[in-house]
Design a protein that fits this description.
Elements lengths: L1 E5 L5 E5 L6 E5 L3 E4 L3 E6 L4 H9 L6 E6 L5 E5 L4 E7 L6 E3 L4 E4 L3 E7 L3 H6 L5 E7 L2 E7 L2 E6 L4 E5 L3 E5 L3 E6 L3 H6 L5 E6 L2 E6 L3 H9 L6
Antiparallel strand pairs: 1-2, 2-7, 3-6, 3-10, 4-7, 5-6, 8-13, 9-12, 9-16, 10-13, 11-12, 14-19, 15-18, 16-19, 17-18
């Protein structure tokens, strides 16, 4: 398969299948448009238990699989929010850990599981509940970001502290924990909340410039209470 990223504010990834039998999977409702010559099949993809695992990690129980019936058939998957789409070739990594909702689409050889946060405090305060997405396997996976995508490559033992909600994904070689912001004045007046995400290298880290939770809170201030 070949892919093309297009669009600026709300981007789309368009897949062109090079031969019959190639497939892509996405959450139900993730397809934007497609050509003729593509078969759609909605299922729990590897069973109901696996579907429940995806649901806990922030995705839907069911996935839609689109399979090319002929060479040159094409399909497009659009982002759910203004931002960017990040292509990742899992064959060149040891797998990635992603925030809930980051998954857009992938080849069917990509596996999505629950990733339990190792530290209890990280699960409670990390902004992602007790679980993240463990994305592994072979092939291409496409993630979506809110706002612009920023990529960092951390050296061994290099530390990056990130506002909760601005982390999209990181390689499994990167360790993850949450630490408390020091100083009561900083907590009360700094506007950053109580906690920061601490990422320690080595490995690749993908960030987003907007925090959708903070944006939702900003909009909520302008919604009349009835």
């Amino acid at each position: 398969m070949q892919y093309t990223l297009s669009g600026s504010k709300v981007p789309v990834v368009e897949i062109v299948f090079e031969k019959a039998g190639e497939s892509m999977i996405t959450q139900t409702g993730g397809m934007a448009w497609m050509s003729e010559g593509i078969d759609m099949n909605t299922s729990a993809n590897s069973g109901v238990i696996k579907g429940i695992s995806r649901m806990i990690s922030g995705e839907s129980i069911f996935v839609a699989q689109y399979t090319a019936e002929r060479e040159g058939a094409s399909i497009a998957f659009a982002s759910n929010m203004p931002g960017e789409i990040v292509p990742i070739n899992l064959g060149k990594t040891k797998g990635i850990i992603a925030q809930k909702g980051a998954f857009l689409c992938s080849e069917p050889t990509v596996d999505i599981n629950i990733s339990f946060v190792k530290k209890f405090s990280s699960g409670i305060f990390g902004g992602e509940g007790f679980v993240l997405q463990d994305i592994a396997g072979e092939g291409m996976v496409f993630l979506e970001t809110y706002g612009n995508m920023i990529e960092k490559n951390l050296a061994s033992d290099e530390v990056l502290k990130v506002d909760v909600g601005n982390v999209v994904a990181f390689e499994k070689t990167v360790s993850y924990e949450v630490e408390t912001i020091k100083g009561m004045k900083n907590i009360l007046l700094g506007g950053e909340g109580l906690f920061l995400t601490k990422l320690t290298g080595p490995g690749r880290v993908i960030l987003q410039t907007h925090n959708i939770t903070e944006f939702a809170g900003y909009l909520a201030r302008y919604i009349p209470n009835r």
